[in-house]
Design goal:
Layout (H helix, E strand, L loop, with lengths): L7 E2 L6 E2 L4 H11 L3 E5 L5 E6 H10 L4 H4 L16 E2 L4 H10 L2 E5 L5 E6 H11 L1
Parallel strand pairs: 2-3, 5-6
Antiparallel strand pairs: 1-7, 3-4, 6-7
Length: about 130
């Protein structure tokens, strides 16, 4: 399967930069109604995706309020369910595994630079058209 045919390009994807705060993450996720969002390094590399669950677990484990967490940098939040990033030449097994466990697949080029995402919905639609 050609993942590029299902790609939502980086320019159309809401992302966060590695140095941003929990406040920025919550605001962006709330605005877009997302439960997870990719975090990108300063040179464009995919770092990880942070979820509302990661933030809530941190809140609970550290007995903090959301207000107290506003200025906490994202990099201190542990990621409980890391999202696997794939390259455009990923094999079927990798795609199936990611599709079963993730709502979206962060896509990277051969250098690890974030190029966009493939959503589960787009992938299922493409597979349905194929049959």
């Amino acid at each position: 399967m050609n993942l590029l045919s299902c790609l939502i390009p980086k320019a159309q994807v809401a992302t966060l930069e590695g140095g941003e705060t929990v406040r920025a993450a919550v605001q962006k996720m709330s605005y877009h109604h997302f439960t997870a969002i990719p975090v990108i390094g300063s040179e464009g590399h995919y770092l990880y995706s942070i979820s509302t669950g990661d933030i809530l677990f941190y809140l609970q484990e550290n007995d903090m309020t959301l207000k107290q967490m506003e200025d906490v940098p994202l990099e201190v939040i542990p990621i409980h369910r890391p999202l696997m990033a794939l390259s455009v030449d990923a094999g079927e097994g990798e795609i199936e595994s990611a599709l079963m466990n993730q709502n979206f697949i962060p896509m990277v080029d051969e250098r690890g630079i974030f190029i966009g995402i493939v959503t589960r919905k787009r992938l299922v639609e493409a597979l349905a058209k194929k049959e």
